[in-house]
Design goal:
Immunoglobulin-like; 376 residues; 5-stranded antiparallel β-sheet; 21 strands; 7-stranded mixed β-sheet; single chain; 7 helices
Length: 376
C-alpha cells in the first residue's frame, strides 16, 4: 500500500510539476511568423505563405497549434486543417523540439483583386499530457495588394482603337521626334511611318519607335461604381475596375497622361479615390494599387456628383473615358455638358450578356456595351 501511495504521489508531483513548468515557460524563446513570397500580385497569381515557428529554449513543445485568419478570396491548396466561412481560418499542428526551427510553405491563389491583411496569428500549446492549452498572440502585420487583372487585349482592341483615334486626333501638339522614349510592339492603330525597320529586322516582328510629346493631353478615366439596380451586381463592378486598369495601361504605354476619378472608397482611408494626371510605369502602379484598394462594401457616392466633378475639371482638350453600369438620365445630361459634347468621351458599359444600355440616341455612338459573364 505504501509503495502504491508513493507511486501515486510521484505521478501527481510529475503531472503538476510539468503542468506548472509549461504554463510558466512555454512562451519563452518562442516566435511565430508569417512571410509572403510577394506583397503585390495580379488577380489570378499564385503565391506562397511561409509559417515559421522557432523554439529557442531547452523545453520541447510536443503539440503546438498555429492559427491565423485570411480573406476567403485567397484559396489555399491542401488545407485539411482549415475552415472557410466569412473568412479563411487556418489551424496547423506542429511538434517543436528544443532549440528547433520549423517552417511550412502554404501555396495559395489570389482569386480576386483587393487589399488583404493576415491577422489573429496565435499559437496554442499543451503540456506533456495534452490536456491543457495555453494561448499566445504574435504580431502579424502582413498585407497583400492584389491588382485587378487586365481584360483580354484582343477583346479590348476595337474599343481601344476607337478611343485612341479620337484622343490622338484631339492632341494639340505632335510627338517631338527628338525626344526618344522607347521601342515597343507594332499595334493596328500605329502609322506605318513609325515602324522601326532596323529593330523589326533584328526581332522578326514589327517594332515602333515611340517619342515623348512636346505637350500632353490628359485622359480622365471616370469609374462609376454606383449600382442603380435593386440587387448588387458585383461581377459587373469588378469588370469595370478591370477595364479601368486596362485602359490606364494602354494609354500610358502610348505616352498619354492619365488621371483616375471614382466614387469607390479606399479600404484604408475610406475616402473616394482620386489619382491626379501623370505618366510612366510608376504612375501605372499607383493607379493599379488604388484600384486594388477599392472597397465595394462601402456605399459609393452618387454618380451625379462624381461626373459633375469630372465635367467641372475637364479642359477642352481633355478626353473622358466613363466606365459605368449606371445609365439614368441625370448622368446622360451631365455627359452633354462636357466641353466638346459627344466628341469628348467614350462610355464603356459593363452589362449582362444579351442586354444593352438604355441611352438617348445622340449618345449611342459613344457607348460601347461590354458583356460580362456572371462567373467572372
Amino acid at each position: 500500500m505504501l509503495l502504491l501511495l508513493s507511486i501515486l504521489l510521484c505521478a501527481a508531483l510529475l503531472y503538476y510539476g510539468q503542468d506548472r513548468l509549461y504554463r510558466a515557460c512555454w512562451k519563452k524563446g518562442l516566435s511565430v511568423t508569417l512571410e509572403l513570397s510577394g506583397e503585390k500580385a495580379a488577380e489570378g497569381a499564385a503565391l506562397t505563405l511561409t509559417e515559421t515557428i522557432s523554439n529557442r529554449k531547452l523545453l520541447p513543445l510536443p503539440l503546438v497549434h498555429i492559427k491565423f485568419v485570411a480573406d476567403r478570396s485567397l484559396i489555399f491548396e491542401d488545407d485539411p486543417n482549415a475552415s472557410v466561412t466569412d473568412s479563411y481560418y487556418r489551424n496547423d499542428i506542429m511538434s517543436v523540439l528544443s532549440w528547433q526551427k520549423l517552417s511550412r510553405t502554404l501555396p495559395f491563389t489570389c482569386t480576386r483583386r483587393g487589399y488583404y491583411t493576415f491577422r489573429e496569428l496565435t499559437a496554442t500549446c499543451g503540456n506533456l499530457f495534452f490536456n491543457t492549452n495555453q494561448l499566445a498572440g504574435f504580431p502579424c502585420e502582413k498585407t497583400l495588394c492584389v491588382y485587378p487583372r487586365y481584360v483580354d487585349p484582343s477583346v479590348f482592341e476595337p474599343a481601344f482603337r476607337r478611343m485612341l483615334g479620337s484622343i490622338l486626333a484631339r492632341r494639340i501638339l505632335n510627338e517631338d521626334p527628338f525626344e526618344f522614349r522607347g521601342i515597343r510592339e507594332y499595334q493596328p492603330y500605329d502609322d506605318r511611318k513609325a515602324v522601326n525597320w532596323k529593330a523589326s529586322a533584328k526581332t522578326g516582328a514589327l517594332k515602333v519607335t515611340t517619342h515623348d510629346y512636346t505637350a500632353t493631353q490628359q485622359v480622365r478615366i471616370v469609374l462609376n461604381l454606383e449600382d442603380f439596380a435593386v440587387l448588387r451586381y458585383d461581377h459587373l463592378l469588378e469588370e469595370g475596375i478591370r477595364l479601368a486598369a486596362t485602359a490606364a495601361a494602354a494609354l500610358l504605354d502610348r505616352g498619354i497622361q492619365v488621371s483616375l476619378l471614382t466614387n469607390g472608397h479606399d479600404i484604408i482611408t475610406r475616402l473616394p479615390v482620386h489619382i491626379p494626371e501623370g505618366s510612366g510605369a510608376g504612375h501605372l502602379q499607383t493607379i493599379r494599387e488604388a484600384l486594388a484598394r477599392i472597397d465595394l462594401s462601402q456605399t459609393a457616392d452618387a454618380s451625379a456628383a462624381l461626373l459633375g466633378r469630372a465635367v467641372l475639371e475637364s479642359r477642352s482638350q481633355d478626353y473622358l473615358i466613363l466606365i459605368s453600369t449606371y445609365q439614368k438620365e441625370d448622368l446622360q445630361q451631365l455627359l452633354r455638358r462636357l466641353p466638346d459634347g459627344t466628341n469628348s468621351f467614350l462610355w464603356i458599359f459593363p452589362c449582362e450578356e444579351g442586354l444593352a444600355p438604355e441611352v438617348a440616341s445622340d449618345l449611342r455612338s459613344q457607348v460601347i456595351p461590354w458583356p460580362v459573364s456572371p462567373g467572372l
